[in-house]
Amino acid sequence: MIEFLRLAPFYVLPFLVILTILVTVHELGHFWAGKAFGVAIDQFSIGFGRAIASFTDKTGVQWRLGWIPLGGYVRFAGDSNDASLPDGEDLEHLRKQIIEKYGPEAVHRYLHFKPLWQRAVVAAAGPAANFILAVVILTIMLSTLTLEHIRPIIGNVIPGTPAAAAGLRTGDLIKRADGHRIRDFKDFQIYVSLRAGQQITFDIERGGTPVVIKATPNRIVEKDKLTGAVHHFGQIGASSADGAAYGERLPLPQAAVEAVRTVGDRIGITLTYIGRIFSGQENGDQFSSVVGIANVSGAVTRDVVAHSNGFAEVIGNGVFVLTQLAVSLSIGLGFVNLLPIPVLDGGHLMFYAYEAIARKPVGAKIQEASFKVGLALVLGLMLFATWNDLQSLQVFKNLGGLFS
Fold it and tell me: Is 27 one of the catalytic residues?
């Protein structure tokens, strides 16, 4: 525990830098979409709390830097309630205020009076910006760096495991899993890890002959050597073949296509895990909070320092691994914000869908109640994920050791 506290800066600083960048990009997505539709914007803030610095540009937008680097926000003109979704009565009152102060021609510059599809685009633009950022970063990495890949060829099959029981053999080439194409051994590992206790149908190629094999992964509990966190995942007991690794750098167009596919796959992985939670196949103990993410950030930073020769190599390797972390976090941030929970962008889209069907905004009382429920859900999920991280890192056990 003392070591954990001593190394806290290595956990926190890289994470805060990445988080600030990703949230800024997210909010810029809303900002740019609003600007494209001519929406009046009052403020754009990086960070919360008292402003360290601020200025107002010629369009009237106040740009500010808050002293708490834990996010940011964009405030559109006319945002009068927490949900930024006034009901019919609020809209009429806002319309009168705008006309009295600026004239009737100014009404169309406020987000709440824009066509429904434009408001929906503005709400979705934040998550979209995070997905686009992930695609751009991955495209640059895939087209400029020679990255290691591992062909999905089976090397060793451990006796007494599901792989051995199913008849998997050394040299088998995994082509598909439940119809999903397997391009890399990592694809194979990820697919299996998400399906503990669930039978998987593998299409393999054995000596040029197609073979179908079915195996059910065992649930494994293992401590991560890098982060110290405990993970639960599925495993069938097969490793990759020697010599299956190769380096590859893709042409730019192909890199862009692969980047889009990768982002889509990661979103699919998240949906699969959530689906298994609702079906009772998982208990959600792998959901991670800022504690776990900061722990990963610090762990990879320390690992880079320990295995790099010289300052230049430390910087180069550090940028590489933290960029990979940024990609994962950007995808996660975009996904979470699309959840249909009031206070998130997905909640706004849910209300807009209702408005499209009912031809009127959601009532003020319903909005207020749903906002409170949504806030409670978000806070509950944060607490649940934080508890998972503290349990996984055995923080309570370590604290108990301090007083024993």
Answer: yes
